[in-house]
Predict the structure.
Amino acid sequence: MYDVAIIGTGVVGTTIARELSRYKLKTVMLDKENDIAAGTTKANSAIVHAGYDADYRTKMAGYNVRGNALYPKICEELSVPFKRTGSLVCAHSEEEILTLQALFVNGKRLNIPGLEILDRDEVRAREPHLSRSVTAALYAPTAGITEPWELAIACAENAVHNGTELKLNYEVKSIKQTGSAFYIISSKDEIVCSRLVINCAGVYADRIAGMVLEEPGFKITPRRGQYYLLDKSEGDLVRSVIFPVPTKEHGKGVLVAPTVDGNIIVGPTAEDLDDDQRESTETTAQGLKALRGASRSNLEKIPYDSAITVFSGLRAEADRGDFIIEFSDAAGFINVAGIKSPGLSAAPAIAEDVAEMVLNYMGSRERNPDFSPYRRPRPKMELMSPGEKADLIRLDPRFGNIICRCEMISEGEIVDAIHRKAGATTLNGIKRRVRPGAGRCQGGFCGPRVMAILTRELGMDPTDVCQEAAGAAVLVGSTREIDGGCL
């Protein structure tokens, strides 16, 4: 019997798990995917918002502002990259300037520090590549950028280090409540029994809630956002996160922003999908065309010919118009749902509050005497001085064997990612943790070499190595063994 079962290992579920690992609770994380952060967390804008956008009376706003303030500490403890770049919401007309002023007032009500409305010259001095039609901008210095998947992985690693269990490929088929216990049954008929359940299932949160109550109390619509990722050669295009003026129809709109790894990201679109399209993460010609058109309002010349990839992600749009963080009518079942943008920014603050809800319900606050907030930093050869590299290679020659030339990732870094707590077992799992395959060639050179390392380190057959989901094998066999050598 577990004390707490968390369904979903995105950035919200894993930050909650880490927060709960401070206490003497038997906690398990469950996820239907083959790895941590394989849903919304792996494909989003990676922005830590300042928090002026959501109405000051909403949960979104409060959690965003508090979460933003927590980012430096949590990222330092977990050795996750975080940089305060600031953000600019760009106006092109007197009407849009009025919206900037409303955002400024909303932000001041939330005590967001450093907000300013800049005039045309001040904006151009800060971002010289902006369109000349930009007449003013709301500047928020506390906005920043991070790596959401690495934060989720780091939180999961730290939670497991502190005693939390992790069960992947655990697709919840049904939940039965008997007395004071929940029986969470997987599609493989495995059973997890827990006193309390935290529903962090993203675009599936309403379906999970519906397994406990006939009327879950909310509806989730999957909303797809498509993106371009530009090569690092375009990294000086912008220094801040650049937004258009938000609208009710398009939300925050299409942004242009630097990434912590030196690329430029452009997106997302906002396309509401049907209920049966909760896995529809393909990109479309129509969506990418719309994205290119929308992005031109703030930057007339975006070098899309330097794009190294396009991708899309899904976010959970709840019909209540705000974050849903509450006990359901089923005692001991907490919904953490509808956590769309600014969910990444809000995650550390949400984790604090949900942990408090759990402790109050359990009636115990006994601390975990072995808890450590720190995650062992992962070695990053690209950021080391020549002397540091030489010292590390002397300790382990595998750090001198470069596997990914685009990102300068060594064999030693890949091996380290495999053997950590909650380590990588797939090609995309390695990519999220260490970045081989994230560069200009998108794995064309390093992919087979990463596969070889995975098979060697995990004792796998090459045909068992998956790109992402369980069963999504990269190789199916020798060409000489398949249809007489013809595929």
About this structure: The chain has a mean pLDDT of 95. Residues 119 and 136 are 5 Å apart (CA to CA).
